[in-house]
C-alpha cells in the first residue's frame, strides 16, 4: 500500500465527513466560512471586528483551530458568542472530523453564520474541505505582494480574499495593486476587500457583503 | 497498516537521508542552516542582507525551497552565489531527499556555509531534519508576540530566532520583549537577534555571529 494511496484515502474520508457537515449547515440555514491564512495575518482580529459590527444583526458562532493554546477562543469569547476551541496538538490543519466534533458541542438552532478559524498555515488547509460554503483567505500586506503566486492552491480554492493590514502599506515594500493582480491571475473569481483591523478600513464593506450572504442563507 | 505507522516510516527514511546529508556537510566543513518561517516573514531578505555583508568573508551557497515559482532563487542569484531551486509543487515542507538531490547539483568544495530556505510554513518543516547543523527561525514582529506559544514545535527545535521587521514595531500591537520572553519560555537555549532588512538593524550582529560559527566549521 503506497503512501499516495493512504493520502487519497485520508482525503476521501475527510470529504465524506465534510459532506455531512455541509448537510447539517444547510439543514440549519447556516453560512459556514473557513477562514485561512499564514500565522499572524489577522484572522482573529478580523473575527473580532466582524463580531463588533454584525453581532446585533446576525447570530454568529466561532470554531477556533490552533496548534496550541486557547488564546484565540478567549479573545472571541469576550464578544459573548458561542465559541469552541480545537487544539490540534501539532497538527498543521483542521479536518472535517474535528469540526464535526466541535459542532456536536454547539447549539446550531438559530445560527446565521459559523466562522471556522483554521490553523495558521497557507499550504496544508487548502486541501481539506470542512463542509464550509467558502474559504476566506486573509493575506497581510506585510507578507508581500508575490504570495498568491508562491502559494497558489489556497488562492485557487478560496472565494474571498481579505488584503489585511492595509494601513501598514506606507512602511512596506508591497504594492496592493500588484498583490490583487497576482491573486486574480490565480483565481479570477476572487471577491477582494482591503481591510485594516487597526483603522477599521474596509471592515464595513466586508461586513456588508457578509451580512447579505448570511441573511440569504437563513 | 495504520497511517501513524506510515508517517513514522516516512520520518525514519527522512532521518536516514538527513544523516547522509549531515555526513557530507561534515566532510566538506560546511555549516548548514535550515531557515524556516511563516510566508513573508523575510527569509529571502535575510539571505540577501547576509550575502551583502558576508559574501566576501565566507563562501556561501543557497538552496531555495518553494511551493511554486523560482522568484527567490532569482533574487539570490543576483548576489553571484551558487543557488539551486527546489519547487515542491504543493508540498508543505522540504525533505532530506530533496536537499540531497539539490546537493548533487552543487560543487561543495570550498563552501563555508549553506543556507537552505525552507517552504514558508511555521508548522510542518519543524518535524523534518534536512541534515542541517541548526534551524534558524525568522519571526516577523507583524505576526504578533504570541506566536512562539501558539506554534511551539518550531521554536523548540530551532537554535536561533531572528525577530525580523523590528522597524515596524511602532505601528504594531507587538511587544518584542514579550515575544522574546515567550520564545525563551518554549526554548531557553535560543540565540535571539532583532533584525530589520529595511534599516539593516541587527544584521551586523547576526552576521558577526554567523561568521564566527561558519569559520569554526571550516
Structural class of chain A: alpha/beta
Unreliable segments of chain A (pLDDT under 50, ≥5 consecutive)?
none
| Fraction of residues in β-strands of chain A | 15-25%
Morphology of chain A: globular
CATH architecture of chain A: 3-Layer(aba) Sandwich
Overall average pLDDT of chain A: 95
Word description of this protein:
2 copies of one chain form a homodimer. Chain A has 218 residues and is α/β, with parallel strands linked by helices. Chain A contains 8 helices and 7 strands, in the order αβαβαβαββααβαβα. The first copy, chain A, has helices spanning 3-28, 43-54, 71-77, 96-103, 147-150, 152-157, 176-186, 203-217; strands at 31-36, 60-66, 83-87, 113-117, 134-140, 160-164, 191-194. A 7-stranded parallel β-sheet of chain A has the order 3-2-4-1-5-6-7, sandwiched between helices. In chain A, α1 packs parallel to α4. The first copy, chain A, starts with a helix and ends with a helix. The A-B interface holds A 1, 3, 6, 10, 38-40, 66-69, 71, 90, 92, 119-124, 140, 142-144, 146-147, 149-153, 165, 167-168, 171-173, 198 and B 1, 3, 6, 10, 38-40, 66-69, 71, 90, 92, 119-124, 140, 142-144, 146-147, 149-153, 165, 167-168, 171-173, 198.
Q: Which key terms come to mind for this protein?
A:
homodimer; 218 residues; alpha/beta; Rossmann fold; 8 helices; 7 strands; 41% helix; globular
Amino acid at each position: 500500500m503506497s503512501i499516495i494511496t493512504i493520502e487519497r484515502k485520508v482525503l476521501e474520508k475527510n470529504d465524506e465527513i465534510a459532506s455531512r457537515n455541509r448537510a447539517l449547515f444547510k439543514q440549519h440555514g447556516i453560512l459556514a466560512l473557513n477562514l485561512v491564512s499564514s500565522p499572524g495575518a489577522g484572522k482573529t482580529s478580523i473575527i473580532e471586528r466582524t463580531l463588533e459590527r454584525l453581532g446585533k444583526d446576525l447570530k454568529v458562532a466561532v470554531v477556533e483551530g490552533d496548534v496550541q493554546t486557547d488564546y484565540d477562543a478567549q479573545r472571541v469569547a469576550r464578544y459573548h458568542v458561542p465559541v469552541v476551541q480545537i487544539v490540534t496538538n501539532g497538527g498543521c490543519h483542521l479536518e472535517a472530523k474535528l469540526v464535526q466534533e466541535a459542532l456536536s458541542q454547539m447549539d446550531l438552532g438559530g445560527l446565521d453564520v459559523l466562522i471556522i478559524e483554521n490553523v495558521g498555515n497557507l499550504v496544508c488547509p487548502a486541501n481539506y474541505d470542512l463542509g464550509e460554503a467558502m474559504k476566506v483567505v486573509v493575506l497581510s500586506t506585510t507578507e508581500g505582494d508575490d504570495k498568491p503566486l508562491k502559494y497558489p492552491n489556497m488562492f485557487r480554492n478560496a472565494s474571498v480574499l481579505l488584503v489585511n493590514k492595509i494601513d501598514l502599506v506606507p512602511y512596506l515594500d508591497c504594492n496592493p495593486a500588484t498583490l490583487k493582480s497576482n491573486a486574480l491571475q490565480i483565481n479570477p473569481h476572487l471577491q477582494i476587500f482591503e481591510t485594516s483591523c487597526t483603522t477599521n478600513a474596509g471592515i464595513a464593506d466586508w461586513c456588508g457583503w457578509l451580512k447579505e450572504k448570511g441573511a440569504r442563507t437563513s
